[in-house]
User: Which sequence fits this backbone?
């Protein structure tokens, strides 16, 4: 059987009891390590599981999935995914491939950032579609997130923004020369995300949001050092020191809010006076 | 410390290793048992945890939370929530109360239906706001879900519909007479939900959806007997036998879809020919 096992969001003990039983019994255990990361190293997982774990990079999963699925019709193979197996990214491709090969598939759900973000204190009911933010370069500044946020805000909904991570990436030069040398990993911060968002608003000028729009920066959601910082987008441009190390995410508020959310999120505000003033003017009682 | 511990969606082994450690060590363990249920009984949990569990009904949580929080500043108290602690319903109220009492709060995330529904094969990115469907009565047919679905569909998004559960409810007569006699639990099925949705569309006539709109019925998501049935809303009115026992949820598709989703969800179709024909006409390539 081929098992997709969610690992949750942060530490080795975030795996479920059901998931751990599968990992301990499987013939081979792969760790998908390019769409997200845990806050602990592979060695911590191996010592907790009491067995070796094979890191599966994008190339292996996307181009060589039959290697992962090898013999899974007769043996148990576990494929570990940070968060939920069908969460922040889908792994439907490898499941479809398994079905083609008549391999039975089991999944073990776990916390995903898309539900875990509820810990920031906003009702999950009122989130719209989720968007992704990639690192801008001089020549590549994809802004499709802007129209998505516009849609969400037009009907009053919050937007969860998932931030780029770059692991095992080659420089253009190394790629051109066919050298398998990889750059150090990079994780986008709330500060970079807020800055890029304001740059695109500046360019497009449609007033979808602005420097005074309220947002929440989230760091290490679900982990022991989980941290939320609430403020205006402008304030969040400079809040990385408060948030600390990766992973970060961001929520841009929609106008559909509840007084209880105000009270709850307020405790995370950079500046509670600013928070109260803008909340009252732009959010409170707006449906 | 006051811990909110997510139990995940179905069986006793869906708790995380971290959550189980807290449950085994805490002075008291409460189970919130009115917003959702696991697929196993309290006795199964007690035997798995090796300790008694106190059932917390709505009255206790909403009117008597200080009893739950008693001594939590000096002892560990665990409050178990099906799904994620901040998932399908929020428990921000009791957390705010704990903070007022200067009780430190910890949360242990877990799978929620709002992320677990990804197992149906639709990208979670493209879900809009979540709506709830309650049992209609002759005099009470709340239809606010209709406008929410309209908003989601206007921007191409899917809608997750969470279905009513009634546990520990009194009949009007017993309530009037002050008799603490409770009705047997009731769980809404996909068939009832689809029927109510079509009734409201019939009444409102705005064409937000119709009998031929595509949807997915989901049963026991994340459990060993998880089951999905895809079809038109009309087909889903009669699919309860295929889906089996509770809990059920429903997803109404938005037009923003991907070919991979077609292939994946198709395997669950009541009638693959109908599915393909409607998908091609109304969904494929629509952004």
Assistant:
């Amino acid at each position: 059987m081929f098992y997709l096992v969610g690992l949750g969001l942060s530490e080795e003990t975030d795996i479920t009891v059901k998931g751990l039983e599968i990992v301990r019994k499987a013939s081979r255990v792969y760790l998908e390590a390019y769409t997200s990361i845990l806050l602990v190293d592979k060695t911590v997982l191996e010592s907790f599981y009491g067995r070796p774990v094979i890191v599966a990079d994008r190339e292996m999963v996307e181009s060589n999935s039959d290697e992962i699925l090898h013999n899974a019709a007769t043996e148990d193979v576990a494929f570990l995914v940070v968060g939920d197996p069908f969460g922040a990214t889908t792994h439907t491709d490898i499941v479809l491939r398994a079905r083609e090969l008549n391999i039975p598939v089991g999944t073990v759900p776990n916390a995903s950032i898309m539900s875990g973000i509820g810990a920031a204190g906003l009702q999950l009911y009122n989130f719209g579609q989720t968007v992704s933010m990639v690192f801008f370069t001089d020549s590549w500044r994809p802004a499709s997130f802007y129209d998505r946020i516009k849609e969400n805000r037009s009907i009053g909904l919050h937007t969860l923004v998932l931030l780029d991570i770059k692991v095992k990436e080659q420089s253009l030069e190394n790629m051109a020369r066919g050298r398998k040398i990889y750059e150090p990993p990079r994780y986008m911060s709330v500060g970079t995300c807020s800055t890029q968002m304001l740059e695109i608003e500046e360019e497009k000028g449609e007033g979808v949001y602005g420097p005074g729009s309220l947002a929440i920066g989230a760091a290490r959601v679900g982990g022991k050092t989980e941290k939320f910082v609430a403020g205006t987008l402008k304030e969040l441009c400079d809040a990385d020191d408060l948030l600390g190390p990766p992973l970060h995410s961001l929520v841009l508020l929609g106008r559909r809010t509840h007084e209880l959310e105000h009270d709850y999120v307020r405790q995370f505000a950079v500046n509670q006076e600013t928070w109260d003033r803008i909340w009252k003017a732009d959010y409170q009682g707006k449906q």
About this structure: The mean pLDDT of chain A is 93.
